[in-house]
Structures are given as C-alpha cells and as structure tokens.
C-alpha cells in the first residue's frame, strides 16, 4: 500500500535518510536512430500507486534528488516523472475539470549542476535548465468502503490505495547534461511553493512518486538521500538552523 511521507530532512542540503530511493523518473537522451534511456527508476508495469512525498503536508516548495546517468549520450530529450494523486473529483466539485476524468495544473522541473565543494552529500549548483508545463492530471478513483481504510480506492489487483500513480513527461529537447545532475520538482499548493495559491484545491493532494528499488538504468550515488526546499523550519531536522527556503 502506498503511503504519504512528511518527515523532516536534514539541514540545507536536505539529506533524508529513508528506506526508499529517489523519486521515480526516466530520462531519455537523443541517439542517432531513436531516444535511449540514460536513467530509469520507474517500475514496469506502473503499479496502481507508489510511495510518495506530499508537497502541501510536507511543507515543500521543491523536492528531488541526485542521479548518475548511464552511457555517454548527454543530449537530453525528455524526463518522465511518476506522480501520485490523492484528490477525488467529488471533493472539489467547483474546481475546473471536476466533471471530467482529469484536472489541469502546471508543474516545474529544474535540472541543476552538482556542487561538490561542500563535501558529501553535494548541493545543487547552477541551473542547467528548467521547464514548466501544464499537465492533465487524472482524478483518483472513488473510495471503496470495503477497504480497511474506507477513504482508499480498490484497484484491479484487488488491493486498496490512497493515491493514484500516473506519469508526466517534460520536454527538455536541446538540453545537454553532465554525467550527474540534481533534479527538483516544484509546484504551488495552498500555502507552499514559489507562489502559493492561497486556497485549497486538488494540488494539495498531489505528491511526488518515490522509488522502492535501485534504478534499472543509471545509478544513485547517494541512495536514500533527497533534496528539499521548504520555507518552514519544521521541514528540516536541524530546525532550520542551516537555512530555509534553499
């Protein structure tokens, strides 16, 4: 069963020692004939849901990790990220898209160089590229009262889940990346993000997917370590002594 995670992270580097690996994503790079996957931690087939990091409940403005790419091709084309939506259309009847299968929302993915000057784990360096795209986000299926948690939904595998896993793909065509990057997913919620919305909405129940196993392509130089940007002292295990909003 998938779970929400809202535990704190350590200091400015936002190092989280967790039993999970980094957020689940795949990066494809341009080859002569067809795109080649240079990093992937997305399970196949995609399960009904995955463990996830909440942004509103986790007081997050940006969340991501450090990855090492496989092979030598570095002309990036696309980055696919697994998300987990916990929002039901019936909970937001006045929100645009409530009468349909999806609702739309902008998400941002930032790619950073890796700054090793401060020791391990490293910190995000200069920005390589950023993309903001609006995605059609599927509503989570209706609750099933026969689940042990009656707020969960029952998938085709017979198990109950709190959220619904789905994919979003960012177009980074024309971007050249080094062998390692730190990526950060960012979006606005009611009270967090670069420009908080100021009112509740399904975006408050939108989470970043997390992987439970090592990547099948590429590697995680610092497994179990994640990067968080939060304006809230409580988002860091050091109480924000090392700085917040970074």
Question: Can you walk through the features of this model?
Answer:
The structure is a single chain. This protein has 246 residues and is mainly β. The chain has one domain. It is built from no helices and 13 strands. Strands 1, 2, 3, 5, 10 and 12 form a six-stranded antiparallel sheet that branches. The chain is globular, with a radius of gyration of 18 Å. The relative contact order is 0.31.
User: Would you tell me the structural class of the helices and strands?
Assistant: mainly beta
Secondary structure tally: strands: 13
Number of domains: 1
Portion in helices: under 10%
Write the H/E string, N to C.
Answer: EEEEEEEEEEEEE
Rg value: 18 Å
User: What is the helix tally?
Assistant: 0
Rough outline = globular
Tell me the fraction of residues in β-strands, as a range: 35-45%
Average predicted confidence as pLDDT: 86
Q: Span between N and C termini?
A: 32 Å
How does the major sheet shape up? 6 strands, antiparallel
Would you identify the regions where 5 or more consecutive residues have pLDDT less than 50? 1-21
